[in-house]
Amino acid sequence: MILISHRGNIKGQIPEKENKPSYIDSAIQLGYDVEVDLRMVNNEFWLGHDTPQYKIDTIWMRLRKDNIWFHCKDMESSIRLLELNENFKFFCHSQDNFVLTSTGHLWVHDINEKINKKCIIPLLSAEEIMLNNIPQIFGICSDYVSFLKK
Fold first, then answer.
1. What pLDDT was estimated at residue 132?
2. CB contact set of 52 (below 8 Å; sequence gap of 6+)
3. Which of 17, 91, 131, 143 could join 101 in a cystine, given CB atoms 3.0 to 4.6 angstroms apart?
4. CB distance 73 to 93 below 8 Å
5. Which DSSP letter does residue 9 get?
6. How is 70-120 classified by DSSP, letter by letter?
7. CB 120: neighbour CB atoms within 10 A?
8. C-alpha dihedral over 118, 120, 124, 129, to 10 degrees?
9. Cβ–Cβ contacts within 10 Å for residue 26, how many?
10. Eight-state DSSP code of residue 129
């Protein structure tokens, strides 16, 4: 099972660091994949959950593409990743219970859905992780992924 850090967090939320390139790199260096929020502004890529905060370029993205899952926050960023045709891992959704990722996995937001080994479950809380009632799935995205390595 792959462990995906939510916006770079591994031991809990640190909002002021989330989506920051150096914070993302720290999580990758510790062996995690990272889910980040991506958007396009004036034909440039930006990271940031609610607003564009950190400008990045395709070179930065390519160097980390094996470890980053881009959550496209707008249609323009999704289209641009498709046009680049470089096998970036990404998905987009607004209020869906699940969404198909570019890798063919289901990113499932409602864990009451029927899940299997092709699913990624995001945003497990520390309490859910501590209960250790994790089904056989492809991956978990959480602010607490370090708890899963223990």
1. 66
2. 39, 41, 46
3. 91
4. no
5. B
6. EEESSHHHHHHHHHHTS--EEEE-SS-SEEE-TTS-EEES-TTS---TTEE
7. 25
8. 40
9. 16
10. H
Q: Are 39 and 48 in contact (CB under 8 A)?
A: yes
Tell me the two tokens of residue 31.
Answer: 């062996």
Distance CA 39, CA 129 (A): 30
SS3 content of the chain, % helix, strand, coil (to 5): 25, 30, 45
In whole angstroms, what is the distance from residue 39 CA to residue 37 CA? Answer: 7
pLDDT of residue 110: 73
Please determine, for residue 68, whether its predicted confidence score (pLDDT) is greater than 70: yes
Decide if 4 contacts 119 (C-beta within 8 A): no
- The predicted pLDDT at position 133 comes to 67
- CA-CA distance, 60 to 88, in Å (whole number)? 12
Sign of the CA dihedral running 87, 13, 60, 94: positive
Query: Whole-prediction pTM value?
Result: 0.93
Q: 95 is written with which tokens?
A: 């209020």
Query: Does pLDDT of 150 surpass 70?
Result: no
